[in-house]
Design goal:
The chain is of the alpha/beta class. It has one domain (2-237): BirA Bifunctional Protein, domain 2, CATH 3.30.930.10. The protein has helices spanning 12-29, 51-54, 57-63, 92-95, 98-113, 187-191, 197-208, 221-235, 238-241, and strands spanning 2-10, 33-39, 42-45, 67-69, 77-79, 83-91, 121-123, 126-129, 132-142, 145-153, 215-217. The strands form 2 sheets. Strands 7-8-9-10-6-2-1-11 form an 8-stranded mixed sheet, sandwiched between helices. It has a 3-stranded mixed sheet with strand order 4-3-5, with helices on one face. A hairpin with a 2-residue loop joins β7 and β8 (126-129). α5 (98-113) crosses α7.
């Protein structure tokens, strides 16, 4: 199983385009793929969310934070270089039903994070340290394959995410799928010492290797080409990102 291990922050629209490119190439080739990666700053909303209901648009514009839509469900999240993104493309028959897939992959990630001396529980689509969220996951399913991805909070963002996301504010309402606000923490805060993205990624890799034989690899030419196409036709366009 290929592991794409690239921790240099990527432009956010390209980060999402690569995820979908890997999903499509895996489906056509019969491969299964893991990707550990980091995005630059962005707000990423779920497939069926209403962007104006989820994001403080003037605040995002003033901060220069792009607003993007992913292909999976779930709520709005803030990506920044202190996050580790984990994407896994599997045959759905191996991943199991939606709830089972969250438990399988979330459980493996939690087991890997034990090497950081932190106890993380996978409950539903959440990764929790005590009652606080350190990660949330979402899925997309197409043609017998599942794309699972989660964003792990490794270091604090430096500014409360509430300055961009509306779900935690009084009076929050939406015409789309709602976000569910929850108190968060980071891995660094949980263990009371700085944890680097590379250290967190090594821990996640160790957890996933309990189930999968992983071999580090780069992007294939056809994956890069498809990602470029998706960037141009989809993730770089407001017709997709602001479609609701």
């Amino acid at each position: 199983m290929r592991l794409i291990f690239d921790l240099k922050p990527v432009p956010p629209a390209m980060g999402l385009a690569i995820d979908e490119a890997l999903f499509e190439v895996a489906r056509s080739s019969g491969e299964e793929i893991v990707r550990l990666w980091v995005n630059d700053r962005a707000v990423v909303i779920g497939r069926a969310q209403a962007i104006a209901s989820e994001v403080d648009l003037p605040a995002a514009a003033a901060a220069g934070v792009p607003l993007l839509r992913r292909i999976s469900g779930g709520g709005a999240v803030y990506h920044y270089p202190g996050n580790l993104n984990v994407s896994v493309v599997l045959r759905s028959i191996e991943c199991g039903p939606v709830k089972g897939c969250f438990q399988l992959l979330g459980g493996l990630i939690s087991e890997g994070l034990e090497r950081l001396d932190v106890r993380v529980e996978a409950i539903g689509n959440l990764l929790l340290v005590g009652t606080r969220k350190v990660g949330g996951a979402a899925q997309a399913r197409r043609g017998g394959y599942t794309l699972y991805h989660t964003t792990l909070l490794v270091t604090p963002p430096g500014r409360p995410i509430e300055h961009l996301l509306l779900a935690g504010r009084p009076g929050y309402r939406t015409d789309g799928v709602s976000s569910v606000p929850r108190e968060t923490t980071t891995l660094s805060e949980a263990v009371r010492r700085p944890i680097g993205i590379d250290e967190a990624a090594d821990a996640v890799e160790s957890g996933l290797t309990r189930r999968f034989a992983l071999e580090r690899s780069g992007l294939l030419d056809r994956e890069e080409a498809l990602a470029d196409t998706l960037l141009e036709s989809k993730y770089g366009r407001s017709s997709w990102n602001a479609s609701r």
